[in-house]
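Researcher: Structure prediction, please.
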Amino acid sequence: MRDLRIVFMGTPDFAVAILEALIVAKFTIVGVITAADKPAGRGRKVQESAVKRYALKQNLTILQPTNLKSEEFIDKLQLLNANLHVVVAFRMLPKVVWQLPKYGTFNLHASLLPNYRGAAPIHWAIINGETKTGVTTFFIDEKIDTGNIILQEEVAIDNDETVGQLHDKLMHVGSKLVVETVSQIQQNTVKTRKQLNVGSKLAPKIYTETCKINWDEPLTTIYNLIRGLNPYPTAWTMLVNNNEKIKVKIYDVAKEVATHHYKVGTVVSSKSEIKVAVKKGFLIIKSLQLAGKRKMDAKSLLNGFTFYKNAILQ
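Model: Predicted structure follows.
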């Protein structure tokens, strides 16, 4: 059995769960590489990554390079004397880093590769209306998410599941998959397979414009976009309400297939319900946030806000 010395690389909460699983499984973590601290929020207060906060509690050695190719960082990395790198939700690594350890560098990706290579695989799986996704461990090579697959596990996507819910589900399954992958590397029983590129879908980074709702799209397309961005970064639209324009973020929704004669985007509200007319039905808004206000459920908003008869989302 191999004596593993692991360097873990990651930044967000998703990566914390995997690092914790490795520690619980009693693997030796000799160092943690995470993003540099940076100012965030209205007060521009310096924020530490979720992985750094967890690693500090575990008294782990932490490196926060701004340049992964710098001699200073490479020297510090080599001093950790790791023989395996585990990467979860981190940056693209230069070859000088991923080829360093004796037993390789592997990554956990939140999709069934080769589908959904890229920065936002969980979001795009829901936005595209997939009924299943999964997690994959693979050895890193020169390109993004193209290396030889070690292990995969499939996960079903529920019809009303949000990206937040699927994120947590994949985080749990991914933790187990990483522990199993490390166990196989430790026991020298890994059997990899090459990725096929046939018909693979991509998961590019999501921008503000990606999140804007097009009310001319079919009901299911809009529904999938909103749940694929809930709770973050959140689908948005502009409300024109009696000549006032307000940016609105939309969170929880439901579908209603129906025949109607409203113009697409028209807001149809009652004392307790907000609906938006779309082709062949309505989108029922259950929770939302008006610019400058807190997020609230539809009924709470309607207690103090009036949608005029000409109110429309566009």
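Model: Helices lie at 13-24, 50-57, 71-79, 95-98, 121-127, 163-187, 219-227, 298-304.
Researcher: Thanks, that helps.
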